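Schema walk-through. Below, the input block comes first and the output block second. Nothing else is stored per chain. Lengths vary across the set, and this one has 301 residues.
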Amino acid sequence: MPALLALVAVTAVWGLTFVQVKDAVALYPLLAFLAVRFGIASLALGVPGVCRAWRLGRAGWAAAALLGLLLAGGYVLQTYGLERTSVSNAGFVTGMYVVLTPVLALALFGLRIPASAWGGVALATLGLALLAGVERGSAAGDLLVLGGAAVFALQIVLMERYAPRFDALGFTFVEMLAAFAVLLVVAAPSLEVPRGWTVWSALIVTGVFASALAFLVQMWAQRRTSATRTALVFALEPVWAAFFGFTLAGDRLGPVAWAGCAVIMAGILLAEPAAGDALARLVGRARRPAARGSDPPKDLL
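--- output ---
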């Protein structure tokens, strides 16, 4: 139960940040915002993260760096899309990473997925088509967010393989540091000192709570609850985004747009069991070497 409640809190924070980030990048360069965000995330994990990172070994550093690069790419796509579409649209399109998870598990690891997953993909695609071009939305923005969702799905699939093998705190620290490093290089020409409460509040919430703590909690929770439950809780993110978009950002979508959101949500819920099953099988594969004699890494969190 604590792990599930922690994941619910994470999805609520992620839903809130859609509003905060959209407001902040209207005032501050987008790439610079993301670089500072992950710089703050790295600092938030700080000294204990550095100490624990040395225990990861070469394989742990390589895996965490790869996931950090994926996070950086996913957030660049998502944030560029968020600039061009509504908070509610971005939230529901981002939620499609749940639908894409079993598809990527099939493509990368050859795991079989049931017909329900393909039904979820079909429904979610139909919902995306209904959302495209609606008032306050943008087809181009939605497609950029969809690209980000695909990258996040890949990050989740790989995280399921790595979570049982490495220390959560050290792994998350290296993951945040890798994202910061690549974004710092890309954003160097546009870097400037952030100004104003709108920008700083978004940086603090996204850096500390939506990045450092959220991904640390994600890795911790995925070691303590089933993959199916994890995937089900993650489906709350677009719901939170729609709630905060309505209450804080003034989103007022029309009937077609809300129909698109509903169809996407139906696709997500239909694909949930398949996503959870795929992730569970990936965890099983990741743990098999330990069963042949090598001790699994101890939980140091």
